[in-house]
Structure to design on (897 residues):
């Protein structure tokens, strides 16, 4: 059995470094397409201000991108360094999209980002525009493959366990590719990135307008961001609903925790707008409920029952009992002490193998598991309610606020009066950090909600780590904290410095600080 | 679908191709990073050096990332065992690599000389430390690494970080560092002129010699003092992979057995020496493009020699030899190897062609005049 503090520390390290990585990803996804739109306008109209816009927002893009690359390598390393058993157990399936991501997407993005920055004088206008698009497409294709990998962790389709190799093996690449969980995740995640990129440009442009400098530059940037952001904010909500529907289909435990559904209700279940969930008492207090709403949204029907935590735990306990048989049979097969009957027993119960492994947290020999252990493992099968309930609601509320902000920005930019609405501009400035919070909340719901599994229903988190000492984990965590804090300070320093300088940083002699001095 | 045995051999070769791609592409800009504080004596010279790789380092680094991803997908047990076993060495590589993207992009965005000098040394660390550690890792693979598998195939590493820094492994580290630095020096000669060019040339000669001498010394050491590993049970290359299903023995001279059985394989270390020598001669003769080709061939020879000597072993276990990982029994399933093979076959040539196009577009010497004219946009 793995030391439980090693499991907790490995989780903490993965969560911290993944959250940190995702501070830089959404801006890359969104800003890359905004750059492509700006440059397209430049190539079509020939107006230099659009080239300056592409270059200036590109500079901020570059500052962000450098850290995205830096922290992305950590993610790739970490499966091997800290999740060795996971890597062995599911590498056959999980490794493939990661490798293809490198070959197909990351090469594209990284090769052309260099030409984006250095190629302005060496490429024709059209060639450079194509480069910018290829960079944007590369970064979004990257997200496709990463989310195929993540989608498989949520809904492990197209794979089968082999007792000879003691791991999951791919049975259908197409199922992996067209996993509905992955599709829904991809579109939701990239549109969240587009919202982030748009709010970044919208907010900083608003700040220039409030300061009264580089007005033409800021107005044009604002308009593009408002239009692109409005479309993105709409789609992030619609596609988020799709992602939620995929959860209903494949991860009922996540849904139950998110919604604080302690008990199964008659269909269609009500939606809890507000409540204070208590994980110890297993009930909500101060509930405000909208009748029928959840059942209608989540099942898209009026008569399908959504199982509550009570039912899901009962169901898990049954699977754990069958899974324990599978684990015991598997151990005999591995030790070559089994016979045909062992094999038949294993085959009959192997779908519940993962549930049997949940017992490994409590006993090395699961055939000796007590009913209390089974009950405890069944309770483990549901993630904690309070954190899920709150993070989900915070994310959704922010999503709707973004929609309102972009709708107003779009409306006033269509009427061409946005630059006079100081309240709107101020709102946009204050909202700059919020898309990051919404994105991180979204990932929290997705990943914390998958617990106690790394691969849903297949491999428990507590079996997935490497055989490291807690001391090594404390050491590496401290190292990451040290480097990541330093890098964040440097990044924010540069980001603020260049955002404050504005297009004057291009040194073309047309902008505020240059003309003011002249 | 190709048969399983063929795919296992193809994947051994493909991992080699990716390692070589890494050494040739990412290797030269790691070499440039290593040389940066020494070959560039003032800010403009250092900017010249950085801007020779400015448009390309990011794409080149993907060889490293894809190499890691491919090992994950094709040899998951190797990925799991090596990355978790070499925990601190991997973290050292990772943390050193942190300095590269930010070093390149952030260095010239602030004018303060202390800021710039700090990032210059960051780029040095980001180039030299990974180059050294990769060699150290290979040096340890050749000697065998203390690890075993539990019944459920959980890899357990029983050595320490400090044990990795043994004399032979450090020699292998020096070979690797000299190899990539020499290669980087050749690249700098192609892209620079004047004082920087002259210093790069001097570095190319020094590191070329160190590489050749170190490679020869390592060869002698392996011949005389390092035992190899041999599979002593019957081998069925098309069997379902299970590393515990074999018996392995440690035997003196076993790492030379492949060369003895197939004398043509001597061409591989031969390429290491001849490529390195050709690089030296061409660098001396001021023909840097040929020198660059020479050092690339040397990389092929040197990496290939380690691979061929150990084949089919990839990661032998010194503490429990039967747990050793080989190209036969540490691989992914038949279907995954097949799909990944096609993915590699389709995308690798595409990547190589657009990378070539990018280099062509950015070709030519980077000069101090270019840096002064592009003060705001150059690195």
């Amino acid at each position: 059995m793995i030391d439980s503090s090693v499991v907790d520390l490995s989780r903490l390290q993965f969560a911290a470094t993944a959250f940190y990585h995702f501070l830089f990803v959404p801006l890359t996804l969104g800003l890359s397409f905004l750059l492509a739109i700006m440059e397209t306008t430049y190539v079509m109209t020939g107006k230099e201000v659009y080239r300056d816009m592409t270059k200036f927002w590109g500079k901020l893009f570059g500052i962000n991108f450098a850290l995205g690359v830096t922290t992305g390598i950590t993610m790739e390393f970490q499966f091997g360094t800290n999740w060795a058993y996971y890597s062995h157990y599911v590498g056959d399936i999980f490794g493939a999209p990661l490798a293809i991501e490198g070959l197909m997407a990351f090469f594209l993005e990284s090769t052309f980002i260099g030409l984006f920055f250095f190629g302005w004088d060496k490429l024709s206008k059209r060639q450079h525009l194509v480069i910018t698009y290829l960079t944007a497409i590369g970064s979004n294709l990257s997200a496709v493959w990463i989310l195929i990998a993540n989608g498989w962790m949520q809904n492990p389709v197209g794979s089968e366990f082999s007792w000879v190799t003691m791991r999951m093996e791919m049975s259908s690449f197409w199922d992996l590719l067209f996993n509905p969980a992955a599709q829904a995740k991809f579109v939701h995640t990239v549109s969240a990135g587009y919202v982030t990129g748009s709010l970044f440009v919208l907010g900083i442009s608003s700040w220039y307008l409030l300061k009264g400098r580089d007005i033409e530059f800021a107005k044009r940037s604002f308009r593009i961001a408002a239009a692109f952001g409005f479309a993105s904010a709409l789609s992030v909500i619609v596609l988020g609903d799709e992602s939620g529907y995929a959860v209903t289909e494949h991860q009922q435990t996540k849904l139950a925790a998110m919604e604080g559904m302690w008990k199964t209700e008659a269909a269609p279940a009500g939606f809890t707008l507000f409540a204070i969930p208590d994980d110890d008492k297993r009930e909500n207090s101060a509930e405000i409920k909208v009748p029928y709403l959840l059942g209608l949204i989540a099942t898209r029907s009026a008569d399908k029952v959504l199982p509550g935590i009570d039912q899901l735990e009962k169901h898990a306990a049954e699977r754990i009992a069958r899974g324990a048989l599978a684990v015991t049979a598997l151990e005999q097969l591995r030790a070559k002490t089994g016979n045909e009957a062992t094999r038949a027993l294993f085959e009959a119960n192997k779908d519940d193998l993962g549930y049997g492994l949940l017992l490994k947290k409590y006993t090395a020999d699961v055939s000796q598991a007590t009913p209390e252990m089974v009950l405890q493992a069944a309770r483990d099968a549901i993630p904690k309610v309070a954190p899920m309930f709150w993070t989900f609601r915070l994310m959704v509320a922010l999503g709707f606020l973004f929609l309102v902000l972009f709708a107003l920005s779009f409306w006033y930019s269509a009427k061409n009066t946005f630059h006079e609405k100081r309240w709107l501009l101020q709102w946009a400035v204050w909202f700059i950090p919020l898309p990051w919070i919404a994105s991180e909340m979204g990932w929290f719901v997705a990943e914390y909600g998958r617990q106690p599994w790394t691969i849903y229903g297949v491999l428990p988190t507590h079996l997935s780590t490497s055989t490291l000492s807690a001391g090594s984990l404390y050491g590496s965590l401290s190292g990451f904290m040290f480097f990541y804090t330093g890098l964040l300070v440097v990044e924010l320093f540069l980001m603020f410095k260049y955002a404050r300088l504005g297009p004057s940083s291009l040194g073309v002699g047309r902008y505020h600080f240059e003309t003011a001095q002249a | 679908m190709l048969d399983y045995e063929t795919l296992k051999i193809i994947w051994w070769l493909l991992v080699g191709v990716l390692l070589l791609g890494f050494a040739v592409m990412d290797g030269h800009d790691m070499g440039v990073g290593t040389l940066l504080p020494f070959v560039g004596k003032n800010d403009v010279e250092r900017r010249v050096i950085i801007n020779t790789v400015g448009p390309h380092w990011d794409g080149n680094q993907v060889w490293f990332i894809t190499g890691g991803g491919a090992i994950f997908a094709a040899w998951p047990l190797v990925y799991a065992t090596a990355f978790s076993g070499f925990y601190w060495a991997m973290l050292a590589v990772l943390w050193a690599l942190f300095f590269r993207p930010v070093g390149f992009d952030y260095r010239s965005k602030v004018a303060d000389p202390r800021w710039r000098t700090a990032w210059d040394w960051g780029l040095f660390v980001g180039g030299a430390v990974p180059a050294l550690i990769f060699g150290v890792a290979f040096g340890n693979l050749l000697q065998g690494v203390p690890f075993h598998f539990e019944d459920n195939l959980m890899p357990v590493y029983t050595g320490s970080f400090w044990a990795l820094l043994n004399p032979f492994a450090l020699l292998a580290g020096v070979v690797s560092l000299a190899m990539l630095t020499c290669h980087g020096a050749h690249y700098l000669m192609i892209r620079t002129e004047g004082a920087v060019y002259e210093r790069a040339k001097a570095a190319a000669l020094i590191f070329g010699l160190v590489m050749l001498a170190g490679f020869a010394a390592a060869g002698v050491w392996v011949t005389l003092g390092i035992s190899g590993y041999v599979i002593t049970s019957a081998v069925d290359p098309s069997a379902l992979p299970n590393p515990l299903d074999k018996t392995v023995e440690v035997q003196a001279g076993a790492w030379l057995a492949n060369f003895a059985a197939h004398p043509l394989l001597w061409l591989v270390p031969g390429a290491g020496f001849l490529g390195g020598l050709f690089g030296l001669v061409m660098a001396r003769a001021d023909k840097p493009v040929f020198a660059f080709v020479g050092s690339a061939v040397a990389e092929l020879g040197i990496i290939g020699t380690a691979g061929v000597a150990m084949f089919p072993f990839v990661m032998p276990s010194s503490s429990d030899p039967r747990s050793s990982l080989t190209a036969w029994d540490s691989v992914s399933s038949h279907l995954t190897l097949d799909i990944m093979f096609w993915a590699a076959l389709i995308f690798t040539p595409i990547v190589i062609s657009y990378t070539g196009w990018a280099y062509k577009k950015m070709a030519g010497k980077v000069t101090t005049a270019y840096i002064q004219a592009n003060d705001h946009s150059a690195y």
